[in-house]
């Protein structure tokens, strides 16, 4: 079974909702707050966590603007890769996926260490990712939203 179809079937997975510019702006604000926290705290694990959430909320703002709800982080990143490939490079998708893994390791496993170079890369990348996502949200128009929604609906249809 295709992963997008699976993500559409699970509880809190992918679902189409009404496109919402106001809610997208609220998620961008949450991303900014996560960045502010990242810059003020000293605990490395929490820097990783807040950097990831700054990126996640930024991406979720794009999805919300299109009218897509998805509370499963892996499925959200899959949407980035499969639906939003015109907006994000494979390297950016890989970065967000690696950030998700680093966040899980930092929060839940004391024996797993996130390498310093990746931690530093993540801290540098999070603000740029927010700016990029804000630009995508701002540039979205009804035609683009309609095309993306139809592309998603088609990808989730089962043969």
Task: Offer a few descriptive terms.
159 residues, mainly alpha, single chain, two-stranded antiparallel ribbon
Count of discrete alpha- or pi-helical segments spanning 4 or more residues: 7
Order of helices and strands: HEHHEHHHH
Morphology = globular
Major β-sheet annotation: 2 strands, antiparallel
Residues in β-strands, percent: under 5%
State Rg: 16 Å
Distance between the termini: 10 Å
Helix/strand/pairing class, anyone?
A: mainly alpha
Helix amount: over 70%
Poorly predicted ranges (pLDDT <50, ≥5 residues)?
A: none
Please give the order of strands in the largest beta sheet: 1-2
- Report mean pLDDT, rounded to a whole number: 94
Number of extended strands: 2
Could you walk me through the main structural features you see in this protein, from its secondary elements to its overall organization?
Helix 3 packs parallel to helix 6 (116-139). The chain is 74% helix and 3% strand. The model has no long low-confidence stretch (mean pLDDT 94). The protein is globular. Strands 1-2 form a two-stranded antiparallel ribbon. It contains 7 helices and 2 strands, in the order H-E-H-H-E-H-H-H-H. The protein is mostly helical and 159 residues long.
């Amino acid at each position: 079974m295709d992963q997008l179809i699976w993500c559409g079937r699970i509880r809190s997975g992918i679902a189409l909702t009404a496109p919402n510019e106001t809610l997208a702006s609220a998620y961008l604000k949450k991303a900014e707050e996560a960045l502010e926290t990242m810059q003020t705290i000293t605990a490395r694990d929490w820097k990783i966590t807040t950097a990831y959430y700054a990126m996640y909320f930024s991406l979720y703002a794009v999805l919300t603007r299109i009218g897509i709800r998805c509370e499963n982080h892996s499925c959200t990143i899959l949407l980035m890769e499969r639906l939003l490939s015109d907006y994000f490079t494979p390297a950016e998708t890989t970065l967000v996926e690696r950030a998700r893994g680093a966040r899980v390791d930092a929060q839940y496993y004391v024996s797993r260490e996130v390498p310093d170079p990746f931690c530093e890369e993540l801290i540098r990348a999070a603000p740029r990712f927010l700016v990029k996502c804000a630009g995508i949200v701002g540039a979205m128009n009804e035609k683009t939203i309609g095309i993306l929604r139809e592309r998603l609906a088609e990808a989730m249809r089962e043969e």
